[in-house]
Amino acid sequence: MKILKYLPSKWHTKVTAIQEAKDLTKLPMEELLRSLMTYEISLTKQLQESENKKKKSIALKATTKDEEDVEEKKPSEEDDDLALITRKLNKYMRGQKEKWEEKGDLICFKCKKPGHIKYDCPLYKIEAKRRMKKAMMATWSESEESSEEEKEKEVANMCFMAIDDLDEVNSNSSDEDMHVIFEELYEDFEKLSLKNNSFKKRIQELEKELEEVKEMF
């Protein structure tokens, strides 16, 4: 039958099967069309299933790649960020201290006595320890409300934002204003550093618990 000659190449298998199994000179047109329609439905279904498998494979590869990218980020990167913040703050503090020492009029903003700055003051160090204890208590109470990873990111982001704000302070500001700004920044940094260490400790504990649960199963 001529109709078989005009079918696309994807029909070649079906055409061959019909030619081998049927006497085309006696095959009714209705039966031929019914056979071709059945094959077309089957072929369409196969193509659709193949396309779905390809989409699932692409999605799986993309998901796997994202997971690998996350795993490739080493914990030490957070430590590097914190170390960078520490170096910047220490550098700034040394510069301010040298600046005040050159003027020869160092006055402690805490005890109001001459000869040292607030961060060398015994009273300030005592209060700093108390703040550290309070921050520790607050950290543990908040640990269940949000993920540890989010908190670590928040710590790093807040520190970098604070440093950027400090860099933008007008150079015409008075020494006293600069001292107050730095004082507030350093106090925030101490609190955030403490929280960061607490979060890391909590993460280690959770990872240990997870390993113990895995071993049970």
TrEMBL record:
Keyword vocabulary terms for this entry: Coiled coil, Metal-binding, Zinc, Zinc-finger
Keyword Cell membrane on entry: no
InterPro entries (UniProt xref): Znf_CCHC, Znf_CCHC_sf
The keyword Membrane appears for this protein: no
GO molecular function annotations of the record: nucleic acid binding; zinc ion binding
Domain (CCHC-type) ranges: 108-122
Positions in coiled-coil regions: 189-216
UniProt-listed Pfam families: zf-CCHC
Protein name: CCHC-type domain-containing protein
